[in-house]
Structures are given as structure tokens and as C-alpha cells.
Amino acid sequence: MLERFLIETCEKYPFEYREKDKVGAYTLVLGDMQIKILPLDPGMIFTGVIGKVPKNEELEDAEAFYIFMAQANYLGQGTGGNIISVEESGKTFLLERKFNYQIHLPLFLDTVESFVNYLEYWQGKIKEFEQKGSTA
Q1: 51: CB partners within 8 A, 6+ apart
Q2: Which of 32, 105, 112, 133 makes the best surface tag, with the fewest CB within 10 Å?
Q3: Is 115 strand, coil or helix?
């Protein structure tokens, strides 16, 4: 089912997809953006790299940065229901979306489109903070 969804996605949007990796995740690729999709039984998890976690000394106001990130995650208000997390090494921010149930093709396509939009937005926000040190 997921392979069929990926084929449909690539027909509708300018993505390419890569076959399963060693952990069983597929990858949707758009330019330098990659979205991993791990099938579950039932459901799936979408994961995309937002960017590196900046060191406190790289930020003008580290506290404001982390408050901003936490507020975005609160009830999914700034993430569209996705979750901003940090990978195990603590060096990279991720955007994730988990479905604990089977989804149909229209919801999958909408989720891919929305996920890409939020991923691009948060990649831009991280760069803003790195460059300016604030949300302004």
C-alpha cells in the first residue's frame, strides 16, 4: 500500500522515492529535502531534518530560541500537528508526524504536502535564528 502511495505522490508532485533502507523506511526526495517514511502496522511515521541544533553561543538569545521552539510544539500550534524533536545525538532538529492507523491516499497526499510546507518553514526559521539570533 505505501509503495502505491509513493508512486501516486511522485506522479502528482515533483518527488522521487527511494526503496526501503535497512530499517524499512522509504525516502521521498525533493531537491535537497528528504522525507523518511517508516511503515508501521498499522500506520506510518514521517521524518524530515529541519537543521542542526545551534549551540547557545551561536544564538543572540538562546532562551528566546528554545521558548519559541517549545511554543511551536505546544498542542501542534506552530507545526500543523507535526512534532519538532531532537535526534538521539542531540545535534539535529527533526520534524515528525505519526499515524497509528491506516490512512487513505487523499490524506497521505495532503499530509505529504503539508509536511513539506512545515519542514521548509522550520528550516527557514532555524536559519533565521542562526543569522539574526532572533525571531524578528
Answers
A1: 92, 93, 122, 123, 126, 127
A2: 32
A3: helix
Triad 74, 46, 31: Cα angle to 5°:
110
User: pLDDT tens digit string along 31-84?
Assistant: 989 999 999 999 999 999 999 988 888 777 888 888 888 999 988 889 999 999
C-alpha to C-alpha distance for 92 and 49, rounded to whole angstroms: 7
Name the DSSP class of 15: -
Q: Are strands 92-99 and 83-86 parallel, antiparallel or unpaired?
A: antiparallel
Burial of residue 68, with CB atoms counted within 10 A of its CB: 0-12 exposed, 13-18 middle, 19 or more buried: middle
pLDDT tens per residue across span 122-133: 999 988 887 775
For residue 56, give the 3-state DSSP assignment.
Answer: helix
All three cell numbers of 79: 507545526
Q: Is 8 helix (H, G, I), strand (E, B) or coil?
A: helix
DSSP reduced 3-state for 18: strand
